[in-house]
Amino acid sequence: xxxxxxxxxxxxxxxxxxxxxxxxxxxxxxxxxxxxxxxxxxxxxxxxxxxxxxxxxxxxxxxxxxxxxxxxxxxxxxxxxxxxxxxxxxxxxxxxxxxxxxxxxxxxxxxxxxxxxxxxxxxxxxxxxxxxxxxxxxxxxxxxxxxxxxxxxxxxxxxxxxxxxxxxxxxxxxxxxxxxxxxxxxxxxxxxxxxxxxxxxxxxxxxxxxxxxxxxxxxxxxxxxxxxxxxxxxxxxxxxxxxxxxxxxxxxxxxxxxxxxxxxxxxxxxxxxxxxxxxxxxxxxxxxxxxxxxxxxxxxxxxxxxxxxxxxxxxxxxxxxxxxxxxxxxxxxxxxxxxxxxxxxxxxxxxxxxxxxxxxxxxxxxxxxxxxxxxxxxxxxxxxxxxxxxxxxxxxxxxxxxxxxxxxxxxxxxxxxxxxxxxxxxxxxxxxxxxxxxxxxxxxxxxxxxxxxxxxxxxxxxxxxxxxxxxxxxxxxxxxxxxxxxxxxxxxxxxxxxxxxxxxxxxxxxxxxxxxxxxxxxxxxxxxxxxxxxxxxxxxxxxxxxxxxxxxxxxxxxxxxxxxxxxxxxxxxxxxxxxx
Length: 580
Prior knowledge:
Helix content is about 75%, strand content about 0%. It is built from 22 helices and no strands.
């Protein structure tokens, strides 16, 4: 009997149950569908903020990077924690205080309608590409696990994600993210504990790593690692704190819940990043030939190293949980993109341009569902296209997409909340200028050319990859951001038709959103529904103790079940109405 398939089936049933449980809460209005009506508690918002940064890339591309390069992979995840800390201190509550339903409505309030349309048609295609990278990573990993066709996996997973987003909108997306966060935590902690036991403890993990653990192989200039981390901090600061990705905090109940959500996501990222990579680090010692088992995947072969560890070191049934975690990571990233894109298209283009403000709220809700379907199919088709890029590893693909394509867009959307006096053409002109910067990095100021300025004539492939990302981030920080700041020299408030509206925008984002302190009916519904679903999930984990495993293997599942049940029980109790 293949217990992994049974575990996966149980996971998908749980996802369907989430969609049905929250369907009614998302159908009241378009605001409920696009951002939960701004009524979500901090732990729900924080979990979706965490999960959208997690993605399947962590279990595949990043795990492969950890397997071969050691500690250096943690740079980007530590940078995520720093980015969320900055959000907690400054950005998160101000995003909520924009008092909008979609990110592009915030862009219109900060700039004008022209920039709203420009960024609408920049954000939607790019988010489709990024979601397709995540979905492609899942297809690669699932094909290695089950020996299934990658295209079939991509279509099956993509359609399930589409169904969740379509039925329950933002409520289903965020609720599923919270439960998926529990799955990720449960799998990661269990695998990390077993990995440390099998490898002989933390000291042995570091000392027995095949390559230099702190630096990794093919690195003649260790300073590149340190500089790469610093630039990752800059990159993730912009990636997490910009008006495009403000949708994470638009759902929060108030300013206080938005800030707490950012802190929760940052702590999860900080404490989780080391736990996630203990298994691939241990696998480098325990199973040094793990990547060679999947040579058919080309440069992506090492991305399946987590599978090898789960299959060889963990009890029967863990692969099913691991795949559930991988599906969870992909689904959380993709369904958030679909829900956000639907809101952006309907509110910024369909309602304002096509319908000239005449679309009813009900019509906007239905239009959002149609757009959700179209976006979902586009992501699936794009993920299939990436299958032809076998010569490029998933880690490199993710880094190139996010730094070369997203970099120019994020500059005016991040620094626009700090640099105030900009002319109306500054945002779109900055993106165009940033595109030229990205082109220059790829074709003129390549890593080999830049290192030649310092007398270095040869670099390894790994150094080339690290330097490409670092040079791109540095170029956008210095030149693209510098261009945006320089536009303030051309600003004249007397000739700016949006001066009063922009001034009001900055007043609004400083004005706190305050909700009632008592638990409302919506608050209790969130707690009760999720608590019930989580306790149901714990009962499934209890059944996994019946799988024929050694005693220690059964205890692993029993411990996971107990931890999940306690969380579900606590939520369920907090969702009960107070006594009269």
